[in-house]
UniProtKB/TrEMBL annotation:
Residues 39-132 form the Clp ATPase C-terminal domain. GO terms for molecular function: ATP binding; ATP hydrolysis activity. The keyword Nucleotide-binding applies. Keywords: ATP-binding, Nucleotide-binding. This is Clp ATPase C-terminal domain-containing protein. GO terms for biological process: cellular response to heat. GO terms for cellular component: cytoplasm. Pfam families: ClpB_D2-small (PF10431).
Length: 151
């Protein structure tokens, strides 16, 4: 349930609302009322930057090969567009789902398909183009050999 109150007397309004809906017996059991600010698009963009950084660190530690992850601004913007759901939503869940669908899952599938040696260096570049959709390009570098593959 999402309630909207003016900032000045929000705590009193919420307490009064709870008493009216649930009665004094239940509303007296509420220890604290937490107030949250609305999440803005800029906040979500920062969250996506953090998610990309965290994901890149996690995937870099996979196995014996070195994997570098690049997520373009186009892909980040696409994750924000699909994951940003104004305050009437379920919070960060749509953002996490969009990130998993657009970034984590395609790259995880590609990493599982890789048949590379431990001495190879892998660069994975995730991009999104409005006309062509998402793309994943894998570049293998090892033993004087460079291979690029599109997914």
């Amino acid at each position: 349930m999402i309630l909207s109150f003016r900032a000045g007397n929000a705590r009193q309004s919420i307490s009064h609302f709870l008493s009216g809906v649930f009665g004094a017996e239940i509303s007296n059991r509420v220890d604290e009322i937490l107030m949250f600010n609305e999440v803005t698009r800029e906040d979500v963009e920062k969250m996506v930057d953090f998610m990309v950084s965290d994901f890149a660190k996690r995937i870099k530690r996979l196995g014996e090969r070195s994997i570098e992850v690049e997520v373009t601004e186009g892909m980040k913007n696409r994750v924000v567009e699909e994951g940003y759901d104004p305050p009437t939503s379920g919070g960060a869940k749509p953002l996490k789902s969009a990130f998993a669908r657009l970034v984590e899952n395609p790259l995880a599938d590609a990493v599982l398909e890789m048949r590379t040696g431990s001495d190879e260096y892998v660069v994975a570049r995730l991009d999104y183009h409005p006309d062509f959709g998402p793309s994943l390009r894998i570049l293998y570098v090892g033993e004087q050999q460079y291979v690029s593959r599109e997914y």
